[in-house]
Write a structure and sequence with these properties.
By secondary structure, the chain is an alpha+beta fold. It has helices spanning 2-23, 26-29, 84-90, 102-112, 125-139, 157-166, 182-190, 194-203, 221-228, 265-287, 290-316, 335-342, 349-368, 381-408; strands spanning 37-43, 56-63, 68-76, 94-101, 116-121, 145-147, 170-172, 232-234, 240-242, 244-251. Residues 1-27 have low confidence and may be disordered.
């Protein structure tokens, strides 16, 4: 019942937003009072959805005199938009900004048990008004939609850029004093969900392993929060002021956060898969259960081939950042999908032998050159790669064994 009431409140809230925008152009005409505040709301990561593992950022406008308390949220997207899934895979995801009453915004995080921190900015009256006006223009129907980019243009970078643009002076952010890459930060957020980390590591490529600047790190809300803590604004005369007046905990995270498991689940499952494949390969070879071999290999290479198609698509047809080049295409490639289909075509066994020989050599070379590859690859990938190596190797032996048997079975001249 509590969740139903919450959903009804959210629906009413968005209805009120639309009415306010259409009826009285509220934000455009209001002049903020001296008691007004503009603040950054930073939500802690939430384990309930993969996108929420990275936290969230929004801007709050509060003016008790004018009875205003609204939040501008750049993280709204519509699942019901035409071709949403296809556009998401292609990296053509359109997000939007909208204002929502503060009580509805904060209730969502209270319902989830997620902590929210507020940083109240130290701004002049002119800066506050210009920021509010800019936010209103951004949220107009003709402007509200923007092309979301996870690393470069998201719900965290947009509020940062608005604040930086309308502050009178240059913001000197607090440094992180760390050498980091996009992959480092993504892993930092996803380590509590090893399979999410494993999947993301598969699809982001070598570009994610380049050292990034402190400002590039702001795509993560908690890094932007820390960048503002201790930040100062310096004007052209050299005068300085602290950017943040105060920092308040609006909500604390409820429950016990999930601890990172000491067992790497993808590595464990991969290792078990490798052991299973070795055992079944020995059984197939000794017992000559070649039909089982074909069925097993079809499943294995079908999965690898489909995974390769995803990587290939993201590399060459997607707008997602840091997906090309991706060295995982060496062991997960679309050719394996074709190979999986051809296992039952006896007339092509010779060509399959050539493929398995090339694949066996290429993957062994890939593993031997592991530390030289200009991409940070997960150790958990190794047992999955070895599983494919084992099956390609066994197919080579199996082909030779069958050919040898065929030669000995030929009638000899007397």
């Amino acid at each position: 019942m509590r969740r139903l009431i919450f959903l009804i409140l959210i629906f009413i809230g968005f209805s009120n937003i639309s009415k306010a925008e259409n009826d009285n152009r509220f934000d455009q005409t209001i002049i903020l009072s001296d008691t007004s505040q503009i603040s950054l709301l930073t939500s802690n990561p939430w384990e309930g959805a993969i996108y929420a593992l990275f936290g969230h950022t929004a801007i709050r406008i509060k003016d008790p005199v004018k009875n205003i308390d609204i939040v501008y949220n750049y993280g709204i997207f519509n699942f019901n938009a035409p071709n949403f899934i296809l556009r998401f895979v292609k990296g053509e995801t359109d997000y939007m900004v909208a204002s929502v009453p503060y009580q509805y915004y904060i209730e969502e995080y209270r319902e989830r048990g997620v902590g929210v921190i507020e940083q109240v900015f130290n701004l002049t009256q002119k800066e506050k008004q210009e920021i509010l006006n800019a936010l209103f223009i951004n949220a107009m129907p003709e402007n509200r939609i923007y092309r979301y980019n996870y690393f470069y243009d998201n719900c965290s970078t947009r509020p940062r850029d608005i604040i930086a643009k309308y502050v009178d002076g240059t913001i000197k952010y607090a440094p992180t004093d760390k050498i980091q890459t996009y992959r480092d930060l993504v892993r930092e957020c996803t380590n509590i969900q090893p399979w999410s980390r494993f999947g993301i590591d598969l699809v982001i490529g070598a570009e994610a392993d380049k050292t990034i600047t402190d400002r590039q790190k702001d795509f993560l809300p908690l890094y932007l929060l820390n960048a503002y803590t201790g930040a100062v604004v310096e004007n052209t005369d050299g005068e300085k002021r602290e950017l943040v007046n105060s920092e308040n905990v609006l909500l604390t995270t409820q429950g016990t956060p999930t601890l990172q498991s000491s067992i790497d689940q993808p590595l464990l499952i991969g290792s078990l898969l490798l052991v299973f494949i070795i055992l079944i390969s020995v059984l197939i070879y000794r017992k000559k259960i070649f039909t089982l071999s074909k069925v097993f290999d079809t499943i294995l290479f079908l999965v690898a081939g489909l995974s390769g198609c995803i990587i290939f698509f993201l590399m060459f047809f997607s707008e997602h950042p840091c997906t090309n080049p991706n060295w995982n295409i060496v062991w997960l490639n679309p050719l394996q999908l074709i190979v999986a289909i051809l296992f039952f075509v006896k007339s092509l066994s010779k060509y399959l032998y050539y493929y398995h020989f090339i694949n066996f050599v290429a993957l062994l070379a890939f593993l031997l050159a592991w530390s030289l590859i200009p991409q940070q690859l997960e150790i958990a990938f190794i047992p999955y790669i070895l599983s494919i190596v084992v099956r390609s190797g066994m197919n080579i032996l199996q082909y030779k064994k069958l050919n040898k048997k065929a030669v000995y079975s030929l009638p000899r001249a007397k």
